[in-house]
Amino acid sequence: MIDLAKKIEAPATIDITAYAGATEAIRAEAAKLLTEGAVAAVIGYIPGRRNGTAIPAIVTSPEKAQELIFSPACVNNLALYLTRAKKEVKGKGRLAVVAKGCDMRALAGLMGESQLKREDVVIIGVACAGVYGSGADRDAPLAEKNIARKCRECRVHAPEGADVVAGSLPPLPEFSPVEAEELARLEAMTPAARWAFWKEHFSRCIRCMACRSLCPFCYCEQCICDRNRPQAVEATPRPAGNMAWHIVRAMHLAGRCAGCAECERACPMDIPLNLLNRKMARELKELYGHEAGLEPKEKGPLNEYREDDDQSFIK
Amino acid sequence: MQKTITEQNLRALIDLLVKKGTRVVGPRRAGSITLYEPLASGGELILGELPRRSAKEAFFPLCENILSFEKTTEGVKVADVDPSQFPETVIVGARPCDAAAPGILDAVFSWDYKDKFYLERRRKTTIIGLACTSCDDACFCTSVGLSPADPRGSDLFLTPLEGGGYACEAVTEKGEKLLAEFPQLFTDAEAAKALPQAEPAGEKLDLARIKSWLDGNFENPLWAEISERCAGCGACAFVCPACHCFDIVDEGGETKGCRRKSWDACGFGKFTNHASGHNPRDAQPKRYRNRIMHKFKYYDDKFGKTLCTGCGRCIRACPVGIDIAAVLEEISKK
Ligand code: SF4
Ligand code: SF4
Ligand code: SF4
Ligand code: SF4
Which residues face B4 on adjacent strands? Predict the structure, then answer.
C-alpha cells in the first residue's frame, strides 16, 4: 500500500522553468518550418484570455508562431486535429504538431490505423514534466495538488520518435498513483458493486458527446450511436442508452485508446472515463500482451481475426 | 415592506414546501459536481456554488417523453403526455444569470408554436433568485447587461447580508404569494448591510455594435480563425441557460415506444444534416458562427433579446478553450 498521507505531507512542486525553453524552441522550429514552406500549418498552443489557460492554435504564419507557448496549461492532445474528424485542418496540407509524450502515443496509434503517414507530419515533441488537472488552481505553481492524474503516473515525459524535442526535463518528484489506486479499488469490488459504481456515474451522462469529440480515435464518419435507421443505441440521455453508449465507447477503444484522458477532461459531468479506459487497457495487456500506442501497429487484437483464434468461449 | 430570512429558515422553507408536495429544485451535490436537482430536504441545498448546468432544465428537461405509442390488434394506439400533471415547482438559489434565462426563452417557446411542455412548467414555477457575492474569471454577466445583484427573472430575490441571512425582495406576485404563505419564516428587515456583490472583471460589451458587425459579416475569415479548433461537441450548448435547440426521436421496440424530446447542439456535425445527405453547415466554423449569430443577431432580430446571460459556463466547459467573452470582445473591436 502506498502511504498517501506521507506523500501529501511533503508537497512536491515541479520546477517548470524549462517550459520557457520549450516555448522558445517551439517558436523557433515553427517559424522555420513555416518560412521554409515545409508545412502549411503548425498545430500548437497559444495563451487563452483567462490567466493560466492555453488553447489549441492552428498557426499558418511565422509571425503568429511567435505567440506559441508551452506551459502547464497545455492540456489538449493535439493529435485530434490530425484526424479525419477535423477535415478542415487536415485539408490545409502538410502539418506540424506539438506533442507531449502522451500525445505521441495517439499519433503512433493513428499511424497504425493508416489515418496518418509519418512523412506527412512534422512532430515537435516537448519534454513535459506535467500539466494541470481539470478544475485545478491555475494560479498556483504546478504541484501535487493541481497536476493532472495521468501525469502522476506518466512514463513518457521525454517523447520518443519526434522530429525535434523542445525543452528539457527537470528532476521529477514521485507522486502516488491515485488513478491506479482507484482502479485497484474498483477491481477489488464485487461485480454488483462495480456495476452500481458505473451505473451511478453513467446516470449523470448528458450525451453531449464531448468525450467522443475530443478523442483522437473517435474519427468514425458514422458513429453507430448516431444511427437512427434503424437506431442501434438510444440517443437520448436515459439509463439504457447511456449504458449502451459507454459500453460501445469502451469496447471500440479497447486496444486503441492511447490513454491521453482527453475524454475524461472534456466531460462536463466529471465522469471518470479514463478509469474504464485503463481497465480495458489492462485486460488487453493480460489477454493479448498488447499495449496501444507504443509503436504504429496495423491492427490491435480486437480488430484482427485469425483462424487459430481461441474460440473455446463460444458455447 | 422589506423582509429578511435566515439561512436556517430558508432551509426550513424548502422542507415545508417539500412536505406539501411541491417540487423544489436547487443546487445540490451530484457526485463531484453541483447541479440544479430536486431537493429532498433543505439540508441538501448548496449555497456557495454555481451549478455545472443551468436551471433551464426545470422548464426544459434534458429529455422528456412527449407521447407514447403501442401497436395493438386494433391498430396503433397513441397516448399524449398530459402537461397538467406537471408539479408546482419552486427553484431555490437560482443565480441571476440562471433566473434571467426563462424570461429570454419564453419568447421562442410561445412564438409560432406554443410549446405546452415548456409553458406549463413555466407557469407553475416560482424562482427564488440569489445575488452573487463571488465570481470567477469566466463570469461576464455585467458585460451583457445583467449583474450579480440583478433580480430580473426572479419572483423572490435574496441578497446575502453581513452577519448571515438574506434580504428578500418580492419581485412578482408569485414572490409575494410565497412571502404571504410562510410568514413565520420571514422577519421584517433590520438595518443589516448587504454583502458586497461580486465584480466580474470584463468590460461592458457594446451589444449593438457587435450585432451590427454580425449583420454584415456572415462571411468573414474571423470565423475560421476562432473556431477551426472547435471539436464540435455539445458541451457549450448543454451547460448554457439560454441554448434551447432540441431533437425529437422515436425510441422503443417493435411494438411500443416513446417520442422523446432531448437537447441538441448546433456544434454537432449532424445538426443540420439533411435526409438527402446535404449539410449546409458542413464545416466546424460554420457551426460555431451559428452559435454566435443565433445568440447575438438572429434572436435579437426576431425577439429583441440576447441569448446569453454571461454565466460563463460555456467558457469553463469548452475542452478546447473557446471563450465566448473573448470572441465578443474581439468582434466589438472590429
Ligand atoms: S462527455 Fe461526459 S456527459 Fe458528455 S457524453 Fe461523454 S460521458 Fe456523457
Ligand atoms: S478514449 Fe479517451 S484516453 Fe483514450 S484515446 Fe480517446 S480521448 Fe484519449
Ligand atoms: S453562451 Fe455561454 S456565457 Fe452565454 S449564457 Fe450560454 S453558457 Fe452562459
Ligand atoms: S465551442 Fe467548445 S464546447 Fe462548444 S462545441 Fe466547440 S469544442 Fe465543444
Answer: B167, B187
- Smallest Cβ–Cβ distance between A48 and the set B265, B268, B321 belongs to B321
For residue A274, which atom of ligand 2 is closest to its CA?
A: 3
Is the domain of A74 the same as that of A185? no
Between residues B11 and A13, which one has the greater pLDDT?
B11
- Whether residue A246 is found in the same domain as residue A131: no
Q: Give nearest CA residue, ligand 1 atom 6.
A: A211
- Confidence (pLDDT) at B148: 97
Which grid coordinates are listed for A34?
A: 513555416
Ranges of chain B with pLDDT below 70: 1, 191
Give A57→chain B minimum CA distance, Å.
Answer: 7
* A156, A189 contact by CB (below 8 A): no
> Given the C-alpha cell 468582434, which residue does it identify?
B331
- Residue B110 dihedral angles phi and psi, to the nearest 5°: -130, 30
**Residue A300 maps to a domain:** no
Q: Is residue A307 assigned to a domain? A: no
What does the DSSP assignment read for A209-256?
A: -HHHHH-TT---SS-GGG-BTTBSS--SSSHHHHHHHHHHHHHHHTTT
Separation of CA A292 from chain center: 12
What is the whole-number distance in angstroms between the Cα of residue A9 and the centre of ligand 1?
A: 35
- With respect to residue A248, please indicate whether it lies within any of the assigned structural domains: yes
- Indicate the residue type of B222: L
**Structural domain total, chain A:** 2
Q: Residue B235's closest CA among A84, A213, A257?
A: A213
pLDDT at residue A298 is higher than 90: no
- Give the domain range for residue B251: 2-332
pLDDT of residue A301: 80
* Beta pairing class for A41-47 and B33-38: unpaired
More confident residue, A21 or A314: A21
pLDDT value, residue A11: 52
**Pick from B228, B251, B321: which is nearest to A89 by CB?**
B228
Q: What is the pLDDT of residue A7?
A: 41
> Do A218 and A115 have their domain in common?
no
| Cell numbers at A116, concatenated | 496518418
Q: Identify the domain containing residue A60 by its residue range.
A: 7-173
Into how many domains does chain B fold? 1
The answer to whether position A305 is within a domain reads no
